[in-house]
């Protein structure tokens, strides 16, 4: 997803870096409270509105977590952007073993790991800024299901039903979370995680008979300075911002010929960066411009000037991020020119397939690039 401008002016992105640690990712949560008389619910409605999709190779989940009455089991339901699958709706319950698929395109399976369980999902091209209502409900007995309704189009899909060991949903321990799913990767850190923005409405229960309010909010202890959370008046919900100061993850596309800056498989040190046909599935084309002025791939390779060569004509590679000035770039012009902090020269495209080089800045189309900026919201 591309837009021509950012919600933030570029100087705000060029903040002083903090120490980056492998496996660190941002994240936020909002916890809820209900009236003391509410002890169990047969249906709960949650609204989720992703304002800024972090990009096609992001790995982020926005979900509402719940517990079940009389058991230690619980689960979550919400939306994901997954690098290997694209946008999804998801529904999961710990400790479960039996399930029924929902609408065409949905699928369920048992999952391993601590406590096991069942996870249902459905590929769905959800639209940023559309409001999606998730209804978690017991339709009879111990079968728990999730129906998702696009409140703009009024179209609904069912994600499936899961047999639980309960008959009602607990009001205790409910929370809305933004989870960055690359935290288990040694290549992840605060600077290569893309920006996201989501709005959660506080849940209501039993067809609006009860309404929860936000009782507490917080951020991950890692990357805390990359996260913000705002609470709506009267605890009616929250807006959660993560990857703050970074841009979205996506293509860096030449405005000369619409080819994309490419680092091969996106995992090889000192790989030549060229321009090739754009491919949304390519790990070697999924860049994040970070608030420390680096351009990073998911593997934490940085756009780099080979051998820190300050001369005109120096070639460009993707190499392990090291904090060096040869990996730092300033966005000039309308945010579409990448100027090296090392030499003052600009990232320049040659012929298709040729390695990118550093040349005197002229503003020519071969030096103009379309980055995945933050969307301008109405």
TrEMBL record:
Gene3D superfamilies: 2.80.10.50. SUPFAM superfamilies: Ricin B-like lectins. Residues 1-22 form the signal peptide. InterPro entries: Ricin_B-like_lectins (IPR035992), Ricin_B_lectin (IPR000772). Keywords: Signal. Residues 242-372 form the Ricin B lectin domain. It comes from the Bacteria. The keyword Methyltransferase does not apply. The keyword Signal applies. CDD domains: beta-trefoil_Ricin-like. This is Ricin B lectin domain-containing protein.
């Amino acid at each position: 997803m591309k837009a021509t401008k950012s919600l933030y002016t570029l100087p705000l992105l060029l903040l002083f870096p903090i120490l980056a640690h492998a496996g660190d990712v941002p994240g936020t949560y909002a916890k809820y409270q209900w009236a003391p008389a509410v002890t169990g619910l047969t249906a709960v409605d949650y609204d989720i509105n992703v304002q800024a999709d972090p990009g096609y190779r992001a790995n982020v989940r926005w979900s509402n977590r719940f517990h079940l009455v009389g058991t230690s089991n619980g689960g979550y339901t919400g939306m994901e952007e997954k690098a290997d699958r694209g946008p999804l709706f998801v529904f999961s319950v710990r400790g479960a073993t039996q399930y029924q698929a929902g609408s065409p395109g949905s699928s369920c399976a048992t999952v391993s790991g601590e406590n096991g369980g069942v996870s249902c999902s459905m590929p769905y091209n959800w639209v940023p800024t559309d409001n999606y209502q998730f209804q978690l409900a017991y339709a009879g007995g111990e079968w728990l299901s999730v129906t998702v309704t696009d409140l703009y189009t009024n179209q609904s899909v069912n994600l499936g039903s899961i047999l639980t060991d309960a008959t009602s949903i607990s009001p205790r321990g409910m929370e809305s979370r933004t989870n960055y799913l690359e935290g288990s990767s040694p290549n992840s850190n605060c600077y290569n995680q893309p920006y996201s923005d989501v709005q959660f409405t506080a849940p209501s229960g039993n067809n609006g008979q009860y309404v929860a309010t936000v009782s507490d909010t917080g951020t991950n202890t890692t990357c805390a300075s990359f996260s913000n959370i705002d609470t709506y008046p009267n605890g009616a919900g929250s807006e959660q911002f993560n990857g703050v100061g970074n841009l979205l993850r996506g293509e860096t596309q030449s405005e000369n010929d619409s080819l994309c800056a490419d680092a091969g498989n996106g995992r090889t040190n000192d790989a030549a960066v060229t321009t090739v046909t754009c491919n949304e599935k390519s790990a070697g084309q999924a860049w994040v411009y970070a608030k420390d002025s680096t351009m990073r791939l998911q593997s934490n390779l940085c756009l780099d000037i080979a051998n820190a060569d300050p001369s005109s004509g120096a070639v460009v590679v993707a190499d392990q991020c090291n904090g060096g000035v040869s990996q730092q770039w300033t966005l000039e012009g309308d945010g579409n020119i990448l100027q090296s902090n090392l030499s003052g020269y600009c990232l320049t495209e040659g012929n298709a397939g040729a390695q990118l080089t550093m040349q005197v800045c002229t503003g020519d189309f071969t030096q103009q690039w379309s980055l995945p900026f933050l969307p301008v919201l109405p």
